[in-house]
Automatic annotation (TrEMBL):
Keyword terms, alphabetized: Methyltransferase, Transferase
InterPro entries the UniProt entry points to: SAM-dependent_MTases_sf, TrmK
SUPFAM superfamilies cross-referenced by the UniProt entry: S-adenosyl-L-methionine-dependent methyltransferases (SSF53335)
Recorded coiled-coil stretches: none
UniProt name for this protein: tRNA (Adenine-N(1))-methyltransferase
A Pfam family the protein falls into: TrmK
Alphabetized Gene3D superfamilies for the sequence: 1.10.287.1890, Vaccinia Virus protein VP39 (3.40.50.150)
UniProt keyword annotation of tRNA-binding present: no
Amino acid sequence: MNDKLLSERLKLVANYVPVGSRVADIGSDHAYLPCYLMNHNRITGAVAGEVNEGPYQSAVSQVKRSGFSNQIAVRKGNGLEVLSPGEVDVITIAGMGGQLIRDILLGGLEKLEGVKRLILQPNVAAHLLRERLSDLNWELVEESIIEEDDKIYEILVFDAGNGKKPYEGFDGKELQKQLLAGPILMKEKNDAFMKKWQNELKKRERILLSLERAEGISEKEAQVKNERDLIKEVLS
Ligand code: SAM
């Protein structure tokens, strides 16, 4: 496989895969990520999971073309149902909303037995993953944020461990802020981070303007105001 087929976003995901792992890439589409990992001798084998027929067929073709049919099993199915417990050490799920990624993980908790690392790239709502996975004792160990083709992407890496550790010493509003924007990303606040949260602030301000003109929406208004205030603090 030509490396140029893989986006910078997925290359960043690939960099977090420990050498020698067995990986499941759920929602693999063309299976570019597992093929790239095999090509670079980063993994010993993979499962590429896909729920939809079109992307499943693309994955089958790409794996054949790349010559990895013996190492990469392409399986059709919903979320983690394509896996047997203990089959892989690492799961990657990229390019979907945070809510869908969370639901995929919650729908197959028994398949996470023996998994050491989750590498997740939610297109939106990363906070839903930080919140839920912390409760499930997955410890956030790495975060990245990058801009590619005018879009901003977050990558979150969780290891089986102490889910509360990254948030030790934070409570109340400060904890909400950490969960929203990411405790590791908050330390650096790089350009992509600042751009993302400036855009999110503008969105909340537009919503509040339109809510001011409507009636009977005070609950929604209070929620958006709370988010706006948190974001202002994130940016400060
Ligand atoms: N992971 C690739 C990437 O990051 O470029 C593809 C992302 S694509 C936008 C999302 C893929 O996830 C689609 O191919 C879709 O068919 C698949 N998908 C969505 N829900 C899924 C589920 N519940 N189980 C498995 N695959 C799913």
